[in-house]
Design goal:
With 509 residues, this protein is α/β, with parallel strands linked by helices. The chain has 15 helices and 11 strands. The chain is 41% helix and 12% strand. Strand 10 and strand 11 form a beta hairpin.
Length: 509
């Protein structure tokens, strides 16, 4: 039945329209005109915030007066929207993590865009629960699935689903592989003795969430073999093959291999084609943790480095990293939709699917993951891809890699700095080592660089992070934000040199 535009005229009159105001309460504004005016001020404030990011510190310590605002009792009476907004502007906005700022290089986080911010506002206004049902927000998510099939050369039978981030997507990939290996009965019977024979494999450079996924899936982290890496910090495929053969000889059942496209510490890419060959020979599920690196497929410069990713059984990645989409927007792409559904679909009476009405449109996104209540993450992703296109986004990805190489060149020009790992993509690990005449022990170097990074954070000039590379504490600069330029690299490096020199000089006095 098509919608009858005269139907609205036939509807009964609102039964609350003539009631006294106190008889019916709503959370909508009493004065829409005043609310609209305040809303425009709030939007303008956020646009001003993004426009003038460079005039702000990247990060600054939170004063106790601001913390105290959020240590009060649960409010029984409300306050005005204007008052709540004032608290936000004064005590929240200045003390965020800073990842929108071009000087933020600490962790692999995208900078977002004004386009994504507006799309998030539209999604919030629509307030769609995208767990399922016959609604356009689900169609928008399906459009992203089709686009990701195209990007990664996956078949039309592939499925995909938005999640919070790659940590969740990696867990879901393990659960799909578990169901394939043990059969659907594992969902009723649980992980029993047969599961104790299952073993999984990943690089020692892999993100910790891969081990956590094995834990949460019921296998335990002891069932995960951490394969050594080579000089390029890539998984050693000969060691991988040897580990699988050794487990088979011991009567175990290898079932899952997680390759990495953009490792957490140094941004290395595992030899995905070789891993795909090994997975095929040993009948293992081949998963790629591509948290930030997978979207390099949009960049002509990076895509050749990802050869083999199109052979994966599943890929996990985040649009909120190199895709510059507002947080959060993780994604899991699975080659075989049937296997994907068998791991998660849970038909129940109150979620009955129909051929007509809002309960149509099966299968639903909730059939492909654990979440029934789901926000409209796809809209900000759709807007980002639609407004900018993959060509421009790919150029941004290439640009971040170029900026990283500029940092490498600047490090090479300073004898007080040392590069600690090869730079494949956009993550640079280095440290301050002092001048030739300085006698700084390895332990003191670790402490020195840790202090330099904390000093940098508190200065508000730049925010790198620290990690450990081959036993040495490193300053880690992850160039992910589309706003980060060579100027920001110069600011950060000049500050590192100045802070390092000042600390060394002080210690010698």
């Amino acid at each position: 039945m098509l919608f009858d535009d005269k139907l609205m005229d036939k509807l009964p009159k609102d039964p609350t329209a003539d009631l006294p105001q106190e008889a019916h309460q709503s959370l909508d504004p009493e004065d829409w005109s005043a609310f609209r005016e305040q809303s425009h001020r709030m939007l303008d404030d956020m646009l001003n915030f993004v426009e003038h990011l460079r005039e702000r510190p990247v990060w600054q310590p939170i004063p106790q007066t601001a913390r105290a605002q959020f240590q009060v009792a649960l409010p029984k009476q409300g306050q005005s929207l204007e008052s709540a907004h004032q608290t936000f502007m004064q005590d929240i906005l200045p003390y965020g993590p800073g990842n929108s700022h071009p000087g933020f290089m600490g962790w692999v986080q995208g900078g977002g865009t004004p386009v994504g911010m507006l799309a998030d506002m539209l999604a919030a206004g629509l307030n769609a629960n995208v767990g399922g049902r016959d609604q356009m927000p689900v169609e928008v998510e399906r459009q992203i699935v089709r686009w990701m099939r195209e990007l990664f050369s996956f078949p039309d039978s592939a499925s995909g689903v938005f999640v919070t981030g790659t940590s969740m997507a990696n867990l879901m990939a393990v659960l799909v592989a578990r169901t394939v290996a043990l059969g659907k009965s594992v969902r009723q019977q649980g992980v029993r003795e047969s599961a104790a024979q299952l073993t999984a494999y990943t690089s020692v450079e892999a993100h910790g969430c891969v081990a956590q996924a094995m834990d949460l899936a019921g296998f335990g982290t002891a069932a995960l073999r951490r394969i050594p890496s080579n000089d390029l910090f890539q998984m050693d495929t000969q060691a991988l093959e040897a580990a699988i053969k050794a487990d088979r000889a011991a009567g175990l059942h290898p079932f899952f291999i997680a390759g990495t496209a953009g490792s957490v510490d140094v941004g290395a890419i595992d030899p995905l084609n070789e891993i795909a060959d090994i997975a095929a020979r040993h009948n293992c599920w081949f998963h790629v943790d591509g948290a930030f690196g997978a979207l390099g497929m949009m960049s002509p410069k990076v895509a050749p480095l990802l050869q083999g990713i199109q052979r994966a059984d599943s890929i996990a990645f985040d649009f909120h990293k190199w895709g510059q989409v507002q947080y959060d927007a993780g994604f899991l792409l699975v080659r075989n939709a049937t296997q994907h559904m068998e791991a998660f679909a849970a038909p129940v009476a109150y979620l009955r699917r129909e051929t007509r009405g809002l309960a149509g449109g099966s299968p639903w996104p909730c059939d492909f993951g654990p979440d029934l209540s789901r926000g409209f993450r796809a809209l900000k992703t759709w807007f980002t891809l639609q407004v900018f296109g993959t060509e421009k986004l790919g150029n941004i990805i290439s640009q971040t890699c170029d900026v990283a190489q500029y940092l490498v060149q600047k490090i090479a020009q300073h004898p007080s700095l040392a590069l600690l790992a090869p730079v494949a993509l956009n993550v640079v690990c280095f440290r301050y080592v002092g001048n030739a005449g300085m006698n700084i022990g390895a332990h003191h170097l670790d402490d020195l660089n840790r202090d330099i990074v904390a000093d940098l954070h508190e200065s508000g000039l730049a925010v790198p992070s620290t990690t450990t590379v081959r036993g040495q504490l490193a300053i880690r600069a992850a160039i992910v934000n589309h706003r980060t330029s060579r100027h920001d690299i110069d600011v950060m490096l000049n500050a590192v040199l100045a802070l390092g020199h000042a600390r060394c000089t002080k210690s010698e006095q």
